[in-house]
Every structure is written in C-alpha cells, then in structure tokens.
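User: Hi! Is it possible to get a structure for several chains at once, not just one? Here's what I have:
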Amino acid sequence: MTRSTKAIIRLPLLKWLVIEMAAVITLSLLWLLESRLAGYSAFIGGLIFVIPNAYFAHRMYRYQGARQASMMVGNMFRAEGIKLALTAVGFAAVFILMEPVHVPALLFTFAVMVVLGGALRFLIQPKRQL
Amino acid sequence: METIALIAAAIILGSGALATGIGFALLGGKLLESSARQPEMAPQLQTKTFIMAGLLDAVPMIGVGIAMYLIFVVAG
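Assistant: Yes, the chains can be modeled jointly so their relative placement is included. Here is the combined structure:
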C-alpha cells in the first residue's frame, strides 16, 4: 500500500531546500554588509523558517490517495502544529541563548523566507509520477 | 511595559492560533469532502491543499516570531 501510494506524487523537497538555502545565504550576505552580527542573525532567521517548513513538507506527503484521506488530513493537522511549535521553540532559543542578536535582520529574513516559501510552492509544484 | 508586551504577545498568539485552526479545519474538511466526491482527484487536491496550507500559515508564523520577540526581549 505504502509503495504504491508513494509513487503517486514526487515531492521536489531537495529543489525547494536548495533554493531556500540559496535565498537564506544571499540575504545573510546582504545583511553582512551592515555588520557580522546582522549577517549571522539573518542566517539564523532563515534557518528558523527552512527547518520546520522542510519537516512540514516531508510529513504532509506521508499518506496519499483517497483511501487514506482521513489519515492525510490528520497528518496535515499534526504537521502544522509541530511546524508552529518548532518555529516558536526556534525563536525562543535564539532570544534566550544568542545574547547579542540583531532583531531586524532576524525577523526581516524570516518574513522574506515565509513569503518566498509560499511563492516557491506555487512556482515549483509537486509532480505526479506516471 | 512588561505587562502590556505580554498581553500583546498573548493576543497575537491566541488570534493567530484561532485563525489558523479555523482555516485548517475548513481546508481539511473541503479536502475530505472533495476526495470522497472524486477519489481519482485526491493527489491533485492534496497538492493544492499543501500550497494553500503554506499560504494560510504565513501570517501566523510571522506573528509567532514577533510574539516571541515581545516575550523574551521586550518583557524579558
């Protein structure tokens, strides 16, 4: 069952990750022009988005097909809850453990990555395997 | 100042969670309904749901970041 349903949709997770990481590194380099701390904070802000988002995308497609529709929806709810919790934990950890932090760089990079993540899902959609 | 920041963070997190919950409930309900109506369309519907889920949680995610900033930096 699992083998046959896995063949339905191929998730371009690696492509998304590569593009998102390239965007995070570019933004970090741009913030690095201001200061080293800003560049580092921007990179951390990008990672706080990329890691929970990759987990969500991976978990969302664990079940596929109409026969497993209820499990698909339940899995989506769980994945979304864990994604939000991971984001909150990431921000809390940064604000507690990383003492000098450039907050505008952190939040700006995070917000840009949230917008870019939504746009990427539109532009590079999961493909159906024949 | 700390109390106001904590109340603001609570409002941001609470309203974000409420809105995301309503949105995901509607989205999941429609996905189940559509999959039952047209089972052969289930993979495409799942992809569309996945895209909409990303758009749906964009604003609450930014809200979580701002709320954590208010809790741990402004009020902390």
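The first helix of chain A runs from residue 2 to 6. The two ends of chain A are 17 Å apart (CA to CA).

User: Great, thank you!
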